[in-house]
User: What shape does this take?
Amino acid sequence: MALVNAKEMLTKAKEGHYAVGQFNINNLEWTKAILLTAQELNSPVILGVSEGAGKYMCGYKTVVGMVNGMLEELNITVPVALHLDHGSYEGAKACIEAGFSSIMFDGSHYPIEENVEKTKELIGICNQKGLSLEAEVGSIGGEEDGVIGAGECADPKECKMIADLGVTMLAAGIGNIHGKYPANWTGLNFDVLAAIQELTGKMPLVLHGGTGIPSDMIKKAIDLGVSKINVNTECQLAFADATRKYIEAGKDQQGKGFDPRKLLAPGFEAIKATVKEKMELFGSVNKA
Ligand code: 13P
Assistant: This one.
């Protein structure tokens, strides 16, 4: 099945009270692991690509070529969206051009008026081309590919203003942070989330920084209207851990254990296991 935008899968998720996972990709192993797991679990999925990861993978056209090739060669039939994560204005335009099916424009660092103006322009382009668009209000804490946010909570009225522009989904800061949560993290702010949900109604809400949020908080966030949850660091940690164990056990020095197809296999399986665990927690299994 060809790439789809994220609108239908997220509308269904919001109505069905579950969330679709966005898993960020970094290379072929990541992409293959996520797509195969989604297919095995009959779950819709969103592949996230940060601008840094896009550069690492030799540019957006390479990413589109790789993902489209895999959809066909692996016979992937579940809905898959290819989504720019935390896109700049220029990055958004480049991904639209390259063949992505979904865009996040992170205008959270602009004054709200400028965020509105740029978001409006991108909504127009995405609507015309049949793409979905995610906007962000209130920066997400932590650091991701050089984009640093302080973890503030979004103003529910600003969320409504951006939602009313006609975006497909809205990321709102509610105390969430990219990367590992510090020991003194006080948790998600459910009062703010409830206030945003109240004002934005059917708009699918997006929770960034999915790594390390306890399961009960994830479930509560879904109950309060979150329909898309982004996970990146957790797959990276799982991959690194499995690869380290393989090397520390000396397996790369046994037989042909140095062959990348063997060396990267434990990490690949670890990503699959992480994605499976998340899809089960988010409730997207058998929702394709
Ligand atoms: P984590 O790396 O904390 O899982 O966050 C991912 C994310 O929000 C991507 O936008």
Remarks:
- Residues 24, 48, 85-86, 178-179, 208-211, 230-234 surround 1,3-dihydroxyacetonephosphate (CB under 6 Å).
- The mean pLDDT is 94.
- Strands lie at 20-24, 45-50, 80-87, 102-105, 132-137, 142-144, 147-149, 169-172, 205-207, 226-231.
